[in-house]
Amino acid sequence: MKKSLLLLGTLGLLTQACGQKKTEKAMEPVLPVQKTDEEWREQLDPEQYNVLRQHGTERAFTGKYWDHHEDGLYTCAGCGQELFRSDTKFDSGTGWPSFHKAMRPEAVREIRDQSFGMVRVEVVCSRCGGHLGHVFDDGPRPTGLRYCMNSAALDFQKE
């Protein structure tokens, strides 16, 4: 037992020394909704596919929900999971729909994102793994969070 722990520790140090890092993908849980790439392409329009499956971002002030003010629920466009309530939406001035909290903490997963030379926190749907946007700590009270989401990743259910 001690030898295998020592070996695992040594392998971990060698991996770090070689510049290789453990990726988030290796630690992702099995998602309840899983589809092939072909199935996602059939279900989603090209912009939704780009955002949800390829981690794209729509241009600011172009999405259908950035200036949307109806009462209801925002759901994942990939799997329909309820993500945000309209009473948590606010105008962040960024051109993307912004919310100060998720409907349920377990509805979304937060993943460290170091793309484009920045360190951010990516937000994905916990049910299908679809990329929704990012969360920042410059939002309003009571949470101080700004979930900056892509309209293409969302659907809306009017109350």
Explained architecture:
- With 159 residues, the protein is an alpha+beta fold.
- It has helices at residues 2-17, 37-43, 46-54; strands spanning 72-76, 82-85, 89-90, 98-99, 108-113, 120-125, 131-136, 146-149, 154-158.
- The strands form 2 sheets. It has a 6-stranded antiparallel β-sheet with strand order 3-4-8-7-6-5. The chain has a 3-stranded antiparallel β-sheet with strand order 2-1-9, with no helix packed on it.
- Strand 3 (89-90) and strand 4 (98-99) form a beta hairpin.
- The longest helix has 16 residues, at 2-17.
- It is globular and about 40 Å long.
List keywords for this structure.
159 residues, alpha+beta, 3-stranded antiparallel beta sheet, globular
